[in-house]
Amino acid sequence: MKKVLQLALLNGGLLFAVAGNSQNVYPKEKFPNTFSGTGSFAGDIGSWTASEVGSGILSVDNNQFYSADNSLRMGITSNTNGPHTSTATTPVYDLLTISCDPSPRSVMVKYRLYFTDLNDAADFTFTINASSTAVPAWTNVYSQTATQLNVVYNTGTWYELVLTLPSTYRTANFRLQFVTSKAGSSDENNVLCIDDPVVLDPAIPDFSGTPGYTDNAPAGVSVNDVYTYANVATFPEAIYAEIKIEAIVNATLDNIDNNNPDAGVSQRFQPRIAPSPQSMNANQEGYFQFAITYRKVSDNNVVNFTGLRYRHFDIDGATGTNFTFRETGWITGHGSFLVNAPSDLTDGGNVVSGGYTWKKALGELSEHTSISLDPDVYYTAVYG
Asked: DSSP 3-state assignment of 180?
């Protein structure tokens, strides 16, 4: 997927970053306590509830079936015949903790399956439900039979299941519910082990590395030059980024990426541009236009994201004795444009240029000297 950005200014400065909150909203559930039966038990993130219908197994332990650490075990064993249903419900996750980010979330679950006889497990199902309301109203988000899950049958290794949930689940009352069900009777082991469930932020590209460079002109920085960043994302798969210069107007590139060592800054893509010529005696607007394309490391194919977000940080300026400059950002292809409140940015309206319709954000006229002030001078664009 290619997205196009124009970065403009009147004098010079650090301009923008493709970045965001890439931390987990909550830690992985490591099941520090043991439990068996029906009721509630304490986990890393709060209190779980568990229930079962029929005679089976519902426990948190490391007793059997490849579980070196504590995991949630659900199903039936050779001396607990079906039919049987086990249900385990997570604590409440508050997914409204990060401002200016309407994105969906991903859920990652590690699981292992153990069946003494897979043929006898044909009516065994594993289901994940989700709810976004204070009084849970469950909706199925994943359901597989034992036969469909055969990829991890008796392998002794964990399989990572990643689910991307729509933004409608982004509430203060999000829950997950894990259910295993055995419809018929059996004298075999049909057991599912679940570990490390976690709610994740969407993967955020990390531009902290040194880019490769392809110079498509005789000398200097020119239109069509390409900078390549390796492994800007590794979850759910390895991705690299190509940054192509599509246009240069009244500007020069001082530094393609100022990797400031300050925490939370080096991960951003931060080109430093300056006016050209610098000997100005009247207002001058200049810009670099970049196009960013993400590709899979495995086959170089373009990655088509759903719900891609772009964040432009540190859009400020400065006023001196005989000059004023203001950083601006132009974006195209977006579905919505969000700022924190209150914001020091000014809406510059829509501009038609180079065959695109751009949304223009005007920065503040004073210098912001710390990343702690970023929330006052940044916006998030959500692409349609």
From this structure: strand
Structure tokens at 372: 């702690």
Q: Looking at the predicted structure, is the pLDDT value of residue 81 above 70? A: no
> Cis (ω within 30 of 0) for the bond into 27?
no
Distances (CA, A) of 72 to 31, 48, 58, 129, 224: 8, 11, 8, 16, 53
For 280-290, what is each residue's pLDDT tens digit?
778 888 888 88
* Polymer length in residues for the chain: 384
- For residue 189, the 8-state DSSP code is -
| Six-digit token string for 155 | 């392998």
CA distance 381 to 16: 13
**CB contact at 8 A, 57 and 39:** no
Dihedral angle computed from the Cα positions of residues 292, 298, 304 and 309, in that order, rounded to the nearest 10 degrees: -50
Tell me the per-residue pLDDT of 114-146, one tens digit each, with 9 for 90 and over: 777 666 667 888 899 999 999 999 999 999 887
Distance CA 234, CA 248 (A): 32
CA-to-CA distance for 215 and 221, rounded, in angstroms? 7
Please indicate whether residue 158 or residue 187 has the higher confidence score (pLDDT): 158
Q: What is the pLDDT of residues 107-116, one digit of tens each?
A: 878 887 777 7
**pLDDT tens digits for 228-250?**
999 887 755 688 999 999 889 88
8: buried, middle or exposed (CB in 10 Å: 19+, 13-18, 0-12)? buried
* DSSP of 315-340: --EEE-SS-EEE-EEEE-SEEEEEE-
Residue 308: closest CA among 250, 242, 235, 384: 384
Rounded to whole angstroms, the Cα distance separating 250 from 267 reads 28
How many angstroms from the chain centroid is the CA of residue 101? 11
CA-based end-to-end distance of the chain: 12
d(CA 146, CA 186): 14
What does the pLDDT read at residue 236? 58
pTM: 0.57
Model confidence at 97, pLDDT cuts 50, 70, 90, reads: low
Please answer whether residues 292 and 303 qualify as being in contact, where contact means their C-beta atoms are separated by less than 8 angstroms: no
